[in-house]
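Is this the right way to post structure tokens for a design question? Let me know if I should format differently. Anyway, here goes:
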């Protein structure tokens, strides 16, 4: 089976001297639900950005659908951390979702009716259609995150990248997002950076722990401490629990 994403001997550093990420090789296959975990500052979001082609490795190579990531954007959906958005963001909820279909914007600056219908369908899928006309900046953090997921899936990507989709939101909304991601897995590959592995670990196919290098786990190998965000050596839990 050919992986949808393959990384070979990757190293990366922002200052080109100290190696933030070193000698990383991994493979992710179609319809897998993958979690990326690790201590603060370990390079999780950096690895995600490398996978998407937003950063260039110092050495090694990345293939996404057998292409360089920067040539694969049409296959991607991306959900950034919600706290990157200004609370006074001056667009409606529907307008934000439509930003995920900018390629379908007409030359005179409007979206065809069919595209607007896709946006409403995406909002309905995340349970927020009734909020379509509200200003995005008036939503709660959890609602914002679900709108950003709707924006990411409007164009039906083959792979969905999420950076801390459950950060700073309540447990009820975390559960809604988990349910949605489980449903989306049938139609796309999902790669998620998270500090909330405890809520997801029974539902993911594999876990990558980033600590300069990357160690791959099955969910059964994950130490309970890791699931709670406490990282230690040795990384692997041979007995399947601690």
């Amino acid at each position: 089976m050919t992986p949808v994403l393959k990384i070979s001997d990757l190293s990366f550093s922002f200052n080109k001297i100290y190696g933030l990420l070193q000698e990383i090789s991994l493979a992710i296959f179609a319809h897998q639900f993958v979690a990326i975990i690790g201590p603060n500052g370990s390079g999780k979001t950096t690895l995600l950005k490398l996978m998407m082609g937003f950063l260039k490795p110092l050495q090694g190579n990345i293939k996404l659908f057998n292409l360089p990531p920067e040539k694969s954007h049409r296959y991607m959906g991306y959900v950034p951390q919600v706290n990157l958005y200004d609370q006074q963001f001056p667009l409606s909820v529907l307008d934000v979702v439509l930003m995920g279909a900018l390629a379908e914007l007409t030359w005179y600056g409007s979206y065809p009716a069919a595209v607007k219908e896709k946006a409403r369908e995406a909002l309905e899928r995340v349970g927020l259609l009734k909020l379509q006309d509200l200003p995005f900046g008036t939503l709660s953090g959890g609602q914002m995150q679900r709108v950003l997921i709707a924006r990411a899936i409007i164009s039906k990507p083959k792979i969905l990248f999420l950076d801390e989709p459950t950060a700073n939101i309540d447990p009820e909304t975390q559960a809604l997002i988990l349910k949605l991601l489980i449903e989306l897995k049938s139609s796309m590959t999902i790669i998620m950076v998270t500090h909330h592995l405890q809520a997801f670990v029974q539902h993911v196919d594999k876990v990558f722990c980033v600590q300069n290098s990357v160690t791959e786990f099955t969910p059964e190998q994950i130490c309970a401490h890791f699931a709670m965000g406490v990282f230690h050596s040795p990384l692997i839990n041979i007995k399947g629990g601690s």
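Format looks fine. Someone answered above. Worth noting: Residues 236-242 have pLDDT under 50 and may be disordered. The two ends are 34 Å apart (CA to CA).
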